[in-house]
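2024-03-11 09:14:02 INFO worker-7 job=invfold-0412 stage=load source=structure_tokens
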């Protein structure tokens, strides 16, 4: 295992679709929304909220609250008045529920023993809200469903033990995908790389793939060539999976060193984009129809040392005709650029060199980025050039993308959770 400063591929970060979210008008000009799962309402890092800051406020952003959290790299999910994340304290991996407006603890429920890893301790995956339940996946592979109202455990199973798997080298990082009656995670077991469990009992319904390591990426649901399907970026490939049976509809090899496929796949029009670090790069896949057995072709590819976009553990943001993303140079090296490229061609538009490792989401024409230095950076999402609105140091080292809900931005590190007001005044 490599030393911690070299690499920490976590979708842990922090990255399900088809989850009901609430959207409502707060004023005549602003729209607010929940952030109910990893990478937001549609699992693409984009919020439809409006009425957010257009310029950096004098004196910086208003801090609404700051509370103690715990060790871990789980992202934050928000549903209504509850903000939820996974932390590690007192020898346990816990689901922590806070009042989203005040930061007060509603409940804290242990779901697994402490998880230790040379690349960072604690849980990695982000919780998923569905109705009055929240679904979590721990660093050691425990999948659980809890009641939002009081944190009681409705069911809990160690998916890896059930299927004869072992935790991935850097820990299990897949954020649960909930689709209908299914809860889907990557297990990387000999009996199933991807596993679907029953939403009511947690019992296994199907497995997909065999003897392939789990990626650190979180699956999503896309409509590809007219068919709704799960797209999973695994340790050595990306594939489309039938929702009902778990059968693989198509597969495209994507082998990276250390099985470090971590960023989530994203849908760009009718195509699927995958990107990986370790000096690998990005590929836009064009998937054929069912009639031609979902034949896979490359719309464009940018790989190797000359690649324009190598997402180490950050998922690219697709806005309009462009992709905004982090490009990590070398094999998990320290140099990372922030880039804008044409989605249709993969050609470079602009590049902010040596921006630094970080993560980001998008809303209201802005990119909200965190850096490993603990900075929050607000950037105008424009293809014209890099245009920074402002930045400030808010937390300690983090790899977790912010969460945005109802005009409030939530960030965390390995010790604290912070809420900032990003509404325009």
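2024-03-11 09:14:09 INFO worker-7 stage=emit residues=425
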């Amino acid at each position: 295992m490599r030393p911690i400063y070299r690499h920490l591929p976590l979708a842990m970060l922090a990255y399900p679709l088809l989850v009901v979210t609430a959207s409502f008008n707060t004023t005549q000009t602003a729209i607010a929304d929940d952030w109910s799962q990893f990478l937001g309402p549609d699992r693409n890092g984009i919020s439809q909220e409006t009425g957010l800051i257009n310029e950096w406020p004098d004196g910086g952003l208003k801090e609404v609250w700051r509370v103690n959290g715990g060790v871990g790299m789980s992202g934050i999910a928000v549903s209504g008045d509850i903000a939820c994340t996974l932390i590690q304290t007192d020898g346990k991996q816990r689901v922590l529920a806070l009042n989203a407006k005040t930061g007060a603890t509603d409940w804290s429920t242990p779901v697994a023993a402490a998880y230790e890893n040379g690349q960072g301790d604690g849980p990695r995956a982000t919780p998923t809200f569905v109705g009055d339940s929240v679904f979590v996946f721990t660093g050691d592979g425990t999948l659980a469903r809890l009641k939002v109202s009081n944190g009681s455990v409705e069911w809990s199973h160690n998916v890896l033990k059930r299927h004869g798997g072992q935790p991935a080298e850097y820990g299990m990082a897949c954020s649960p995908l909930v689709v209908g009656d299914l809860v889907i995670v990557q297990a990387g077991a000999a009996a199933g790389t991807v596993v679907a469990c029953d939403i009511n009992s947690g019992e296994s319904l199907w497995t997909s793939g065999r003897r392939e390591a789990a990626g650190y990426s979180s699956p999503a649901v896309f409509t590809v060539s007219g068919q709704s399907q799960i797209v999973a970026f695994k340790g050595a490939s990306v594939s489309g999976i039938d929702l009902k049976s778990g059968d693989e509809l198509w597969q495209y090899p994507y082998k990276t060193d250390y099985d470090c496929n971590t960023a989530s796949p994203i849908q760009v029009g009718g195509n699927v984009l995958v990107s990986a670090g370790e000096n690998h790069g990005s590929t836009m896949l064009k998937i054929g129809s069912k009639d031609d057995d979902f034949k896979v072709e490359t719309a464009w590819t940018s790989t190797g040392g000359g690649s324009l976009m190598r997402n180490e553990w950050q998922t690219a943001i697709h806005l309009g005709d462009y992709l905004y993303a982090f490009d990590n140079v070398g094999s998990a090296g320290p140099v990372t650029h922030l880039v804008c490229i044409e989605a249709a061609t993969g050609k470079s538009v602009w590049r902010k060199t040596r921006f630094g490792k970080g993560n980001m989401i998008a809303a209201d024409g802005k990119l909200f980025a965190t850096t490993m230095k603990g900075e929050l950076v607000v950037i105008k999402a424009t293809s014209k050039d890099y245009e920074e609105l402002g930045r400030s140091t808010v937390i300690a080292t983090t790899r977790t993308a912010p969460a945005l809900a109802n005009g409030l931005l939530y960030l965390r590190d390995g010790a604290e959770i912070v809420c900032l007001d990003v509404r325009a005044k």
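2024-03-11 09:14:09 INFO worker-7 stage=report msg="Helices lie at 159-163."
2024-03-11 09:14:10 INFO worker-7 job finished
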